[in-house]
Automatic annotation (TrEMBL):
<feature type="domain" description="HAMP">
    <location>
        <begin position="625"/>
        <end position="677"/>
    </location>
</feature>
<feature type="transmembrane region" description="Helical">
    <location>
        <begin position="253"/>
        <end position="274"/>
    </location>
</feature>
<keyword id="KW-0732">Signal</keyword>
<feature type="transmembrane region" description="Helical">
    <location>
        <begin position="341"/>
        <end position="362"/>
    </location>
</feature>
<feature type="transmembrane region" description="Helical">
    <location>
        <begin position="607"/>
        <end position="628"/>
    </location>
</feature>
<dbReference type="InterPro" id="IPR003660">
    <property type="entry name" value="HAMP_dom"/>
</dbReference>
<keyword id="KW-0812">Transmembrane</keyword>
<keyword id="KW-0472">Membrane</keyword>
<dbReference type="GO" id="GO:0016020">
    <property type="term" value="C:membrane"/>
</dbReference>
<protein>
    <submittedName>
        <fullName>HAMP domain-containing protein</fullName>
    </submittedName>
</protein>
<feature type="signal peptide">
    <location>
        <begin position="1"/>
        <end position="20"/>
    </location>
</feature>
<keyword id="KW-1133">Transmembrane helix</keyword>
<feature type="domain" description="HAMP">
    <location>
        <begin position="274"/>
        <end position="326"/>
    </location>
</feature>
<dbReference type="Pfam" id="PF00672">
    <property type="entry name" value="HAMP"/>
</dbReference>
<dbReference type="GO" id="GO:0007165">
    <property type="term" value="P:signal transduction"/>
</dbReference>
């Protein structure tokens, strides 16, 4: 019994110390930690954008070489022009002789070549004299009956979209800047800072002149598979922040919480000692006195419920040992109501639970926190909007890449109609984005296909005369999107995208919930599961910071629909057929996810309250198992003995104070039985018969 009480006191003191140390210790440094985290997330998004673009470049050139090498023989110049027209993503393209490195035909800007290319080298990143860099890729070009040639392409490093006040850099293994975009891309001081911060792969803050302004740098490695990771690239994003993003916490909250828990811990310990331990110890002492034969002093124990009933039963046993036969009549009806011991344990649990609930309520984010953190929250809103815009741009480029791949496949299908089915099967099996590929004639009939069955779509009588992207359905279980490439006016090549392709660009760490919605405001993609063609969940989603007009409360669970969120909306705009779809990307992130001091205090207070409540429930359950439940059994046993039932043998469950009471009751039962047997063995004296006078 002493162990759970001591353990509860120790645990509460530990939570008290944790509260004093952690709560109120959420002060930011020169720049808010939430802003640093946001810049790191943006750098990781940028690294994913650069990595996916590099991976796509490495796959596109071998695919184009295979497709055009399988077609009819043409002069090198026409071959290079056809490939460059189908894949409008390379800055330069050349067909060269591997043995000498001599270019046979070229298109676009000059491709950096250096002597013989036997065997074909691996892709490399080549810096240019003007400070830029080119990704140079190689692919063998083999046509039947012709010597093997080498197709060489040079492409620029694709960077994330530009943002207001933001500059993005791509650095190589030695910290050399290979590509840059943004307002300060040519700043030499910034380039030196980027070269020094890039290998750290974390967000750092640097003072940027007078006035308290800071420059925040976030960097992340480009690791999109082995082929891309071997380049050793790093994406670094830099943003200039105004003063005031850092916020401070209030240490008095920690002092208030720790002192209040200390008072609760002292009160709980005293209640358990007085209301639980003292009655049990007095019952143990009284039963021990009766076992020793000390039957002159009456049994008195304070309390109600089990302690009072057991005291009455022990008093009846004491009188029975003295030879005084009095009926056992306890003042309280047995096993009804709550005893003083149970009431003390419940009151202690209620005190701790009250503190656990009151502490987060007293330390929630209030209006003062909004004022102190206003600059940081505004920066977080801008960062969320930028991430949403970058995600929309990545989605647009992904769909355009798929449409470009289909357009590059169309010439081979048109010129080699007898091999169309085989080409489509190879494209579907090649691990691309396609769910199905098929050729449609003017009547909407499928001439040949590969992959799954086509989606039922009413094609217009006039087939698209140029490349297009179409949304094939607006209801159903899965959204269907297709890219269309014309095949000479009499037929079109259709490629349906897998539904998962539309959700892949939405997977970003720390962005919250992200959806892709169509022109009818129906969801067709999501990063955490979604129901196709359902409306967006929630209300007030498009307010940038709804928390400016909401009242504070306990956590997002209690805030409900009024929980402050960072929300943004970005349409898929830009050149290409994707803009005609009317799609947009919508993101929503609870503000409580940010590492702001007010929410850090909320979370730490909730953690402290939860730990204190767990400690109280754990020790209360322990007391119930080893004290309260055995004490009720001892109450039943003592009442049965006092009422004259002395046949049942009593066994203690635990080797503790309540177990000692049960052992003493068993000894009293045996003593009473022995006394009864002794009295029964002594023959009663028969009175002499009285004779009546006659």
């Amino acid at each position: 019994m002493r162990l759970p009480i001591a353990l509860l006191a120790a645990l509460l003191l530990g939570v008290c110390a944790l509260t004093a140390v952690t709560v109120g210790d959420g002060d930011d440094g020169p720049v808010s930690q939430s802003v640093l985290d946001a810049q790191q997330f943006i750098a990781e998004d940028g690294a994913g954008t650069v990595g996916s673009a590099l991976g796509q470049h490495l796959q596109d050139l071998p695919r184009a070489a295979r497709l055009f090498a399988a077609g009819p023989a043409e002069p090198p110049r026409r071959t290079v022009a056809a490939i460059a027209g189908s894949y409008q993503k390379w800055r330069g393209l050349a067909l060269v002789e591997p043995a000498t490195g001599r270019p046979l035909a070229a298109a676009g800007e000059g491709v950096p070549l250096a002597g013989p290319l036997m065997p074909a080298p691996r892709a490399r990143i080549t810096p240019l004299p003007d400070g830029q860099a080119r990704l140079v890729t190689y692919a063998p070009f083999r046509r039947p009956g012709q010597p093997e040639r080498l197709l060489v392409a040079a492409g620029a490093l694709r960077l994330p979209p530009e943002g207001e006040g933001r500059t993005t850099f791509v650095t190589g293994p030695g910290g050399r800047v290979l590509a840059a975009s943004g307002e300060r891309w040519a700043d030499p001081r910034l380039r030196r800072l980027v070269s020094a911060a890039a290998p750290q792969h974390r967000a750092v803050a640097r003072a940027d002149g007078a006035g308290g302004r800071h420059l925040v740098l976030g960097s992340a490695p480009v690791a999109e598979g082995r082929a891309v990771a071997r380049f050793g690239l790093t994406v670094t994003t830099a943003v200039d922040l105004p003063p005031g993003t850092a916020a401070w916490d209030l240490p008095r909250l920690a002092l208030l919480g720790a002192l209040s828990l200390l008072v609760v811990a002292v009160a709980v310990t005293l209640l358990l000692l007085i209301g639980v331990q003292r009655p049990v110890l007095r019952l143990q002492a009284a039963s021990r006195r009766l076992v020793r034969g000390e039957i002159d002093e009456p049994v008195r124990v304070r309390g109600w419920g089990e302690p009072r009933r057991m005291a009455a039963a022990l008093e009846a046993l004491r009188l029975a040992l003295r030879g005084e036969q009095r009926p056992y009549c306890p003042r309280e009806k047995r096993l009804t109501g709550i005893s003083s011991v149970r009431a003390s344990a419940l009151l202690c649990t209620a005190l701790v639970a009250g503190w656990a609930v009151a502490l987060p309520l007293l330390t929630h984010a209030d209006a003062d926190d909004r004022v102190r953190e206003r600059t940081a929250r505004e920066q977080l809103a801008r960062d969320q909007a930028y991430r949403t815009h970058a995600t929309a741009e990545r989605m647009r480029r992904l769909v355009l890449e798929a449409a470009a791949d289909l357009s590059s496949l169309a010439p081979s299908v048109r010129t080699s109609s007898y091999r169309a089915g085989e080409l489509l099967k190879e494209a579907v099996a090649g691990g691309g984005p396609w769910r199905s590929l098929y050729v449609l004639d003017r009547g909407g009939r499928v001439l040949t296909r590969a992959g799954q069955a086509p989606t039922g779509y009413r094609w217009p009588a006039a087939l698209p005369a140029q490349s297009a992207v179409l949304q094939l359905n607006h209801s159903g279980k899965e959204p269907a999107t297709a890219a269309v490439a014309p095949l000479g006016g009499r037929a079109v090549l259709v490629g349906e995208l897998r539904p998962s392709v539309l959700s892949a660009p939405l997977q970003h760490q720390g962005i919250g919930r992200a959806w892709l919605v169509d022109a009818r405001d129906r969801v067709i993609g999501g990063n955490r599961g979604f129901t196709a063609f359902e409306p967006l969940p929630g209300r007030g989603l498009f307010s940038v910071l709804t928390e400016w007009s909401t009242d504070s409360s306990l956590g997002d669970l209690l805030r409900g629909a009024d929980a402050p969120v960072l929300a943004a909306d970005a349409p898929l705009t830009g050149p290409g057929p994707v803009a005609a779809l009317g799609w947009r990307v919508v993101t929503e992130k609870p503000l409580s996810w940010a590492a702001l001091p007010s929410y850090e205090t909320e979370r730490r207070c909730q953690l402290a309250g939860l730990l204190a409540l767990i400690a109280a429930l754990l020790c209360a359950g322990w007391l119930h198992l080893i004290v309260l439940r055995p004490l009720r059994e001892a109450d039943r046993a003592a009442a049965a003995l006092a009422e004259g039932d002395r046949k049942a043998v009593l066994y203690p469950r635990h080797e503790d104070e309540v177990g000692a009471i049960m052992r003493n009751l068993e000894l009293l039962r045996r003593r009473l039985n022995e006394r009864d047997r002794t009295e029964a063995d002594v023959p009663a004296q028969q009175p002499e018969p009285a004779y009546a006078e006659r």
